[in-house]
Amino acid sequence: MNATAPGAVRVGYARCSTYEQDVVVQTEQLLALGVPAGRIYIDRGFSGTTRRNRGGLDQALAAVWPASVFTVTKFDRFARNMAETNHILTDLSDRGLLFGLGGSVYDWNDPFGRLFLQTLAMVAEFEANLGHLRTREGMALAHRNGKLKGKQPKLPESARRSIRRRYAEGEVSLADLATEYSVGRSTIHRIVHGPPTGQS
Question: What span, in angstroms and rounded, lies between the C-alpha atoms of 146 and 197?
């Protein structure tokens, strides 16, 4: 499953779903894996469910060359979408590149390596979809209880709790939440950073 890449130069990628989330741990881990500081690319404020607008990922993918290793510390920092995962890893493989996950290196052309990475991609996408499902269920319940009528400026407390939890866990970004709940980004920001309902 693991491919050896003696002397190969690593290019690192780190992502956090919120601007406030710290990527120091990821960066330190990448440095420990031998990724040069100047070859670590970062995206802040983006979820991994889509590649769209992730400039750091685009830069990292452009910075690799044949026989180098594109490296991440955790798979869900890289992607949480199976279709895009397959597309990116196929492109890397076609360019003669390997994929590094922590201290292990995988070859997309190796059947066992591909199966392992596809399984990780499937799990990452499942976890992301599960979070979205919970949010939709909370919204549906709020609608049935008459607590959410049209595009009200205030979201029900159940939705606000879900937003705070998912944001704190790094599951989604402010922009993703704003789109999901059809509210402005400033509304999501106030929910995340303001006191819970009923508190001063």
Answer: 18
